[in-house]
């Protein structure tokens, strides 16, 4: 999962860790990126979820939308699962349904791994 700013990423991590449904079905962590030439150190750049059997794409996407609505500048959210990327930009009902269906279909296709 990628968020436009490191501050946004840390905020989303805290939000997901405090959500009772997400806390019971996924482990939320951060992964730093490799520094680009001229940069010092690593930047927190990716939020990583390890999901269990009780994981629900609907609960996950709704938690993302709820967090996004709390932000003054609603960031674009990129969700990557394997080679597939899903994007939340507006949070409309149609967009949310599209991402939930795609995540569920992707999970069904690989056995949930």
Main sheet record: 3 strands, antiparallel
- What do the pLDDT scores average to? 78
Q: Which runs of at least 5 residues are low in confidence (pLDDT < 50)?
A: none
Give the strand order, joined by hyphens, for the main sheet: 1-4-5
Proportion in β-strands: 15-25%
Task: Count the E strands.
Answer: 5
SSE pattern, N- to C-terminal: EHHEEHEEH
How would you describe the shape? Answer: globular
Helix/strand/pairing class, anyone?
A: alpha+beta
Tally of alpha and pi helices: 4
Quick overview of this protein structure:
By secondary structure, the protein is α+β, with helices and mostly antiparallel strands. The chain has helices spanning 6-18, 20-25, 57-69, 93-109; strands at residues 2-3, 26-32, 44-51, 77-81, 84-88.
Topology:
Blueprint: E1 2-3, H1 6-18, H2 20-25, E2 26-32, E3 44-51, H3 57-69, E4 77-81, E5 84-88, H4 93-109
Antiparallel strand pairs: 1-4, 2-3, 4-5
Helix pairs in contact: 1-3, 3-4
